[in-house]
Amino acid sequence: MPYEFLEHEADIGIRAWDKTLEKAFAQGGKALFDIMVDIKKVKKVSSVDISCEARDIPALFVEWLNKLLTEADIKKMVFRDFKIKSIEPFGYDLYRLEGIASGEKLDPKRHMIKTEAKAATYFGLKYEFKDGNHYLQCVVDI
């Protein structure tokens, strides 16, 4: 499991990593939804296109997670699988992410709700590449 939860006094920190930046972002999506539900019980029934922009890679991670939360709330869904199609420079000093989140409608009886994630924050935000892996982390407000 290329993500973990970090100790935080009131909220939950997440750290995600993988060999590629795209896969590290996908692992961050899994960590986010694993805070909220047992993602092993979520089926891949439908997919939602996700796109976002930010000034740098760390900020893009926060925007990605918040966009996932927004789409899940609007569509009353939970996600379990994530694919990043691209992360590219866009315009002047911006990055754009294009991705897909797959899951299904939230069923509280089957999905075993853990807690509500309100937003990914800039607190504890960090991005680094070391030992062949991209690491991303932030704190999620619950």
Write the layout of secondary structure elements.
Elements (H helix, E strand, L loop, with lengths): L2 E4 L5 E7 L2 H16 L9 E9 L2 H19 L1 E13 L5 E11 L2 H4 L7 E2 L5 E5 L2 E9 L1
Antiparallel strand pairs: 1-2, 2-8, 3-5, 4-5, 6-8, 7-8
Textual characterization of the structure:
By secondary structure, the chain is an alpha+beta fold. The chain has a single domain, classed as Archease domain (Archease, Possible Chaperone, Chain: A, domain 1). 27% of the residues lie in helices and 42% in strands. The strands form 2 sheets. Strands 1, 2, 6, 7 and 8 form a 5-stranded antiparallel sheet that branches. Strands 3-5-4 form a 3-stranded antiparallel sheet. The chain contains 3 helices and 8 strands; from the N terminus they run ββαβαββαβββ.
Major sheet, described briefly? 5 strands, antiparallel
Query: Can you tell me the overall shape?
Result: globular
User: What is the succession of H and E elements?
Assistant: EEHEHEEHEEE
Low-confidence stretches: none
Sum up the structure in keywords.
142 residues; Archease, Possible Chaperone, Chain: A, domain 1; 5-stranded antiparallel beta sheet; 3 helices
Give a short overview.
The protein is built from three helices and eight strands.
